[in-house]
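README, section 4: Worked example with a bound small molecule

Sections 1 through 3 covered apo chains. Here we extend the same pipeline to holo records, where the ligand is supplied as SMILES alongside the sequence. The molecule in this example is zinc ion. Nothing else about the input changes; the structure line simply encodes the ligand pose together with the chain.
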Amino acid sequence: MTTSINIIQPDDWHVHFREDEMLKVVTKYSARVNRRCIAMPNTSTPITSSNQAINYKKLIESNSHSLNFEALIPCYLTDNLNIDDFIYALQNKIFIGGKLYPTNATTNSQYGVNDIKKIYNIFEIMEKENSVLLIHGELNRDDVDIFDREKYFIDEELYQIRNTFKNLRIVLEHVSSDYGVDFVNSNQNIAGTITPHHMLLTKNDVFKNEEINPHHYCMPVVKNEKDLLSLRKAACFDNKNFFLGTDSAPHHTSDKVQYKSLKPGIFSSPCSIELYATIFEEENALENLERFSSINGPKFYGLEINEEYLHLSRKNFDLPDYTEEGNVRVKNFFSDKKINWNVS
Ligand SMILES: [Zn+2]
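The generated complex, written as structure tokens:
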């Protein structure tokens, strides 16, 4: 049995650091293992300008408790962006790319895009600037079942984006279905991130006896066994098109447990790489972890691969149920289950 592994230091290509006190508490958990993180721009006032991105990056990095940690910021795409500023920010690497949130798909996505055709001019700019389009790929419409939102988004929007902007690099974020995996694998210039929770939970862990477990509620919602297995295969084996993105998304526990304001999001950064290692070990694929966690991501984004290494050893990871500091109290994902790996 393998008892320790060394991997190139990972990056997390999808994290929510939020704002204010929450940001001050949670950032260090991502920075403890990752060298870079993409910080999602769906803050209460979305990040849509170069100035906001510069300030948000500084704020995150100054709260990381790490000297070489880097926050990368995508622009929150809307149909009323200042185009000159957007181009300036892409050319000067202030934005790592642009993030598309279809309206009301998840937390703070009410500023998102209603009619995606309206921002095709922005995709055209991004393609020309060789930038990356990050997509929350769900179609949120009354007639679409919550479990089919990813499929509908692919069928009704993504095919067309893909075929219209053939050279635009696209990341389908937090792929959650068998259908999504197939789409990524059968198209060009597209990659997917996969979260630990989509490889550990099925819908039975969320919806049981007509009750929702708020701590397992996230967007896209976790799906069936078949989807989970397909995601595990995509991450652990032929994983050249997939890389690490936890979608760690903290909410105050009080916001999570009130049904009426049930907020989607799972907080996994205190145990992120440990969870991935546990999953890869279950699949007998530990030798492929590094490619998923540390190589495929920078390759796709056109960035250098990290130079430092991270050492993991096989030992029970003792994770408290909550991250608690000051007024912040967030449920730690998987604290009641077995995590076999530790960072040393
Ligand atoms: Zn997210």
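What to look for in the output: Residues 14, 16, 40, 247, 249 surround zinc ion (CB under 6 Å). Residues 149-164 form the longest helix (16 residues).

Section 5 describes how to batch many such records.
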